[in-house]
Write a structure and sequence with these properties.
It comes from Streptomyces daghestanicus. By secondary structure, this protein is an alpha+beta fold. 63% of the residues lie in helices and 8% in strands. The chain is built from 23 helices and 13 strands. The chain has helices at residues 2-14, 16-36, 51-62, 88-103, 141-156, 176-193, 196-220, 230-258, 263-290, 298-329, 341-347, 354-364, 366-381, 402-414, 434-446, 479-499, 508-542, 546-571, 590-619, 624-651, 659-691, 700-705, 714-734, and strands at residues 41-42, 72-78, 107-110, 125-132, 160-164, 226-227, 389-390, 422-427, 451-454, 458-459, 465-472, 502-506, 587-588. Helix 9 (263-290) packs antiparallel against helix 19 and helix 19 (590-619) runs parallel beside helix 21 (659-691). It is elongated. The relative contact order is 0.12.
């Protein structure tokens, strides 16, 4: 692979006037595609095989008028201060709004607050439930506009109108997070390279790659149901990874220039060495993200595949566009006029770098550093034992948004559980009398402590399927509601035995609980697959048994500590004001799985870039401890810069008002912080110092079985050295220098 990348780097460098316009053409085509194909996103979940999904499927068949799979909206109406909606004037206004809603496009049914009992006991709050004939992803702009026009009409009538439900789209968010991340990345790159030209190349590559990826994902949303947060995750990862990959290659290119190689040759060598590590690192992230599809949840699948696509584009840009742009800059990227005297002294070997000093410190105190790392992360991981999972709902919407106002208003008027009613389906098609079973089920529900109200059963036309609505006393995301769903399912067993019917619990709240439970159950198997993949890949790269085990153990420790921090901040509320967390809630159930997949790839990035330098030194005869310090000399500065850039990009999303985006940003930033600086820069060298030469041991029989992937480009270097040697011999005989011939 290193030889192929070497040739690719030289080719892209030479053909830069073709490569650069080709990428620009791809970007323009992607932008044009967005104008013609811009679909919608969805937060809907389907979970085949669960009781809640089975009940939804039954409702679609037996209650087609209910549109069980259709999108829903809640139009929450509040009277002005001191007034009541039951007054003749306000009642007439509300009924006019309901009439307008029934005429809106794609609406299947609308419940009148006054006839359905959806007016609070105080009389000042009511809501109309709007059910659409199509799923959330198929809501047209006309239908959405009609909903907002009704809200505007109510506001003009002096009523306070807010909208909730999955049919209400999130408002467009600002790009402050991305801009802050880019600004910090630019500053770090300038400090790292000391050159505006060198710092600008990774940023240009990242913008082109992310632009193409996001446009393609938007086009894809016209053909598939795309999760609403898929673009955010792709942007978050694509931006950070693209900058990092370009950073590694540009740094290696500058090194090759300083060693006296011509620009084209330096580009080829940079791609053959650092480019190999980029391909491997990108592959690990893509595999981990694409692996999310095996869990069987469509929303998670689209998020993982969208982010994986962004990583693929980032790798392709780094391998082709970047060497082409290097061709236009030539040797200017090697001139660091903005560097300090200390940095110049470090670059010329007159002063040890910070990485070398840190590596020596760790290797002198391996036991202390090992214990400090393990104990520190272990303490931070303790809150993870209290991890609870949920799915985002309107309670996690941005403060001040119409969804959040609607949720808070309903909670004030009807109680905290009113926004998440439970739907109980009594299926008596193969059993006894449905009315008797429905009566028994209602009695069972009324006997449970956390049930606020139970509405009378509604039957289908055949009279053999009943639908009962129960409103919990607790919020939808609370543990009490989770326990209530379990109690209803347990109490339904007695009804089923006595009547021969099937009783199922569904609704958005129950479905969310089932999804969270499935994701919680899938976390351990997925973690095992990811760790197993890490062991195999690192075994191939480093040809060592102990290094992969050490890397996987460090990865698990950093993930546990990150989950502990998330629980402490978002679930327990520690330092919530510092991080802008408006309200504590269980951790979004998607986050741990996403965290495992993403952090695995990033952890392998740093492991490869740092430890490959150590292995290269060890293979060339350095002692175990000396090899560790050498690896820090070549990789610590670049890895540190890459980690700071990633942390900055991810942390910028803490400024987002949406709880899911905020938690993803904090989780990824914390994970990179722990993995890069505590695990890879501290624990790894400490463990390798204690292991000594045993760290690189590999049984002979296993050595013969494993293919040599040559991520460090060792074979390429030997071939190039032999070629250079053969080139110098005729040059000495002819007394004229001869340019090195292209490889192959």
């Amino acid at each position: 692979m290193a030889t192929f990348l070497y040739r690719l780097g030289r080719l892209a460098f030479r053909r830069r006037r073709l490569v650069l316009p080709a990428w620009i053409a791809v970007l323009v085509a992607a932008v044009i595609g967005v104008s013609g194909f811009s679909g919608s996103t969805t937060d809907d979940f389907t979970l085949p095989g669960t009781q809640s999904q089975q009940a939804i499927d039954l409702l679609e068949k037996e209650f087609p008028q209910a549109s069980a799979a259709g999108a829903t909206a809640r139009v929450v109406i509040e009277a002005p201060g001191g007034q009541k909606l039951t007054s003749p004037a306000h009642k007439q206004e509300v009924e006019a709004l309901v009439a307008d809603l029934r005429k809106a496009p794609q609406v299947a049914s609308v419940t009148d607050p006054f006839t359905a009992g959806l007016v609070s006991s105080s009389g000042n709050i009511a809501y109309a439930q709007v059910t659409y004939a199509v799923p959330q992803a198929d809501i047209t702009p006309a239908a959405s506009d009609a909903l907002h026009q009704v809200a505007d009409k109510g506001e003009k009538a002096s009523l306070k109108i807010s909208l909730g439900g999955n049919a209400v789209l999130e408002e467009e968010q600002s790009n402050a997070a991305e801009l802050i991340g880019l600004l910090v990345a630019a500053f770090v790159l300038v400090v790292t390279f000391g050159s505006l030209v060198a710092a600008g190349l990774p940023l240009v590559s990242a913008v082109v790659g992310v632009g193409i990826a996001l446009c393609a994902i938007t086009v894809a949303s016209s053909f598939v149901d795309m999760a609403s947060n898929a673009q955010t995750l792709a942007l978050m990862l694509g931006l950070a990874v693209a900058i990092d990959y370009a950073l590694f290659i540009v740094s290696r290119y500058r090194t090759e220039l300083r060693e006296g190689h011509a620009p084209e040759e330096a580009a080829g060598r940079a791609l053959g060495t650092a480019g190999s590590a980029v391909v491997f690192a990108g592959l690990t992230v893509v595999i981990a993200l694409a692996g999310l599809s095996v869990i069987g949840i469509a929303m998670l699948t689209t998020m993982g595949l969208a982010a994986a696509f962004a990583i693929i584009v980032a790798v392709l840009v780094a391998l082709t566009l970047l060497p082409a742009t290097l061709g236009f800059t030539g040797t200017r990227v090697a001139h660091g006029r903005l560097t300090t005297r200390r940095v110049r002294a470090e670059q010329h070997g007159r002063r040890p770098t910070m990485g070398v000093r840190w590596g020596r410190f760790v290797t002198r105190h391996p036991w202390r550093m090992l214990l400090a790392s393990v104990v520190g992360l272990g303490v931070l991981a303790i809150p993870a034992l209290s991890l609870r999972l949920t799915l985002p709902d309107d309670s996690m919407a941005a403060p001040g948004s119409t969804q959040r106002v609607a949720y808070d208003t309903l909670s004030k008027g009807f109680g905290p559980g009113f926004s998440g009613p439970l739907t109980i389906v009594v299926d008596a098609r193969d059993g006894d009398d449905a009315k008797t079973a429905a009566t028994a089920t209602s009695a069972m529900l009324k006997g449970l402590d956390d049930v606020a109200t139970v509405r009378p059963p509604v039957f289908n036309e055949a009279g053999d399927v009943a639908l009962i609505t129960a409103v919990p006393s607790s919020p939808p995301t609370s543990q009490e509601t989770v326990d209530l769903v379990g109690d209803i399912r347990e109490g339904s067993d007695a009804v089923e035995k006595d009547s021969g019917t099937q009783v199922m619990v569904t609704g958005t709240t129950a479905l969310n609980i089932d999804v969270s439970a499935k994701l919680g159950e899938a976390m351990v198997p997925y973690l095992a697959v990811v760790v197993g993949l890490a062991l195999v890949l690192l075994l191939l790269v480093f040809r060592s048994v102990l290094i992969p085990i050490k890397a996987a153990a460090g990865f698990l420790l950093s993930v546990a500590a990150t989950l502990g921090v998330l629980v402490a901040v978002f679930q327990w509320g520690w330092l919530k004001n510092v991080f802008g967390v408006d309200e504590t809630a269980p951790i979004v159930s998607l986050l741990p799985i996403l965290l495992i997949g993403v952090v695995f790839g990033l952890a392998m990035d740093y492991e490869v870039f740092l430890v490959s330098g150590m292995r290269e030194a060890y293979v060339h005869g350095a002692g175990p401890t000396e090899a560790i310090v050498t690896g820090f000399r070549h990789g610590a500065r670049v890895v540190t810069a890459a980690a700071v850039i990633m942390i900055s990009v991810f942390a910028g999303f803490l400024l987002d008002d949406i709880a899911l985006v905020k938690s993803i940003g904090m989780g990824l930033a914390t994970a990179v912080l722990f993995d890069a600086f505590v695990i890879r820069m501290t624990l790894v060298p400490a463990v390798m110092t204690l292991l000594g030469a045993r760290a690189w041991a590999l049984p002979r029989w296993l050595d013969r079985l494993l293919p040599n992937v040559d991520v460090e480009g060792e074979k390429l270097r030997r071939v190039l050295a032999e070629r250079d040697h053969q080139t110098r011999i005729p040059a000495q005989n002819d007394q004229e220098p001869t340019a090195p011939a292209p490889l192959g």
